[in-house]
């Protein structure tokens, strides 16, 4: 078990505890000159400002209840169990990061070269993002697609740290140590003040929703890319359903974007609301899922049409704003939720502008990697990034100019044989994680690294509780849709869950739910016949 040297940092650290915890977190003897040197890796004087936010019953809604400034003689360093063994730091616990860690654990290592692995993520749960839609439909439980890292890594040597990355400070690039055989790859600074010195670094930070491209989107639209997003959307829908229950009112949902995410979200929400609401999907392109196989697109169009989803194709959102009282005059009395106005502009000539009203705005367009923000303001960023903010890598997934840094998933810009950047999908990240794990093994053991080659196995999309579309790449022109596609998709994703133990638990849970649903359907059918 490794140790973390708690320390002061020049950054602001927020603790969601009462101010009385100060004496427990930093006892008076820590602030004396007699601090045990074995407790802290360094001894630099830093000024620490701590703002305590109330979360208890006396604290209200997160108001500031105290502010303390102290001088602490410590520097935050993560202490690895054995500095003689390779130290691998993985940033990001999504498909790329978690599966790289598990791949490293599964490989054969000599006792001297077996790496120590630290996995850092801002959440305490891994999220199987392709199945977030099933949380809205109630088809899956949260623990099934968002298990805790502590459970997944319980039987491994991987150490998990819940924290945010603040600064990258690599030292393996040319001009710093000038050698690929450097014994120190660099340092990662976390928001908590902790510093992790590493030999090898894996960048798998994913991407964040890009809302700042349209006025009002950040304030009034909800993205759909994280577990917190799914919870927020589900809660908002639940509130709308409860407040409008028994009233002559149609819940209006506007979804911006008609790529895979937007279409899957539109199909799921429309099925959930049924005749109690209307879903509008807006897309700047004149077709939905423009990069999807024709079979998937046609299956999606049929489902959206059957659920009366209104497609506003060839439009982009000019702005989103809160509706005024006069604009919300058609809202029945007693319904006090906010409404929003979306101003739409045509992407082509010959079309008229539109203004639509919505009770809920969901955003599925655009993403931005966090890498450009992980730098010192007074030091040029040394990791090469493309215009999208992704790290430029070679074919072995190593960052160009950085022999000790690998990058994968949404954080990397790797091109296929046709020169196109690989799509930011779970399938790509899953395959890259396998290669990254192997290439780390090869690099540590002085073996040749393998070039990554993406193999497109096909594309899948959910279209509701008992509906999906799958176009496997190995059978040209074949599309499985409806209940058959739904079952095939769930089996495929079950096999991709992170660990054998979790797959077994989820498989039993899904089988049990399916059996219960089948019995209920049979009883319902028999009662109608009788």
What layout of secondary structure does this protein have?
Layout: E1 3-5, E2 13-15, H1 22-25, E3 42-53, E4 64-75, E5 77-79, E6 87-91, H2 95-106, E7 116-121, H3 133-137, H4 142-145, H5 149-152, E8 159-162, E9 165-170, E10 186-190, E11 195-198, E12 200-203, E13 208-209, H6 217-220, E14 222-223, H7 227-244, E15 251-256, H8 260-273, E16 277-283, H9 294-306, E17 310-313, E18 315-322, E19 340-346, E20 354-358, E21 360-363, E22 367-368, E23 391-392, E24 405-407, E25 412-413, H10 426-444, E26 458-464, E27 467-472, E28 480-481, H11 482-496, H12 500-529
Parallel strand pairs: 2-3, 6-7, 6-12, 7-8, 12-24, 14-21, 15-16, 15-21, 16-17, 23-25
Antiparallel strand pairs: 1-5, 3-4, 9-10, 10-11, 13-22, 18-19, 19-20, 26-27, 27-28
Helix pairs in contact: 2-10
